[in-house]
Amino acid sequence: MRSATERSGTIESRTTTALYIPETASLREIRSAGLALGLTRFELQLVSDLLSGLEDGEIASRASVNETALARHVTRVFEKLGVHDHLELALLLIHRGFLTLP
After folding, report:
1. Most buried by CB count within 10 Å: which residue of 6, 34, 76, 83?
2. Distance between CA atoms of residues 72 and 18, nearest Å
C-alpha cells in the first residue's frame, strides 16, 4: 500500500497488507461516510479511488493533479480523519459503519 508521506515529490512506498475494496461496493457507502465525516466531494472521490486499489498515477490523472499535489490531498484527508494510512482509513470507515466488506 502507499503512504501519504511525501518524499521528494513522490508518495512513499510502504509494505503493508494490501487492501482492495471494489469501487462498485464502496462508492455509495463512502459518500455517506464523507458527508458525516466532513469530507469534500473531491476528498470523497479520492477516498474511493484509494480504497479501490488504484495506483497513485491513475488517481492523480483522474483528479487532474500531479502526484505531489495528490500526496498533499491524501495527507489532508488522513489528518481530517485522524488516520495514518490506507488500512486505518478503511478500518475507520468499517468501524463507524460506513463501509462493509463484500
Report:
1. 34
2. 22
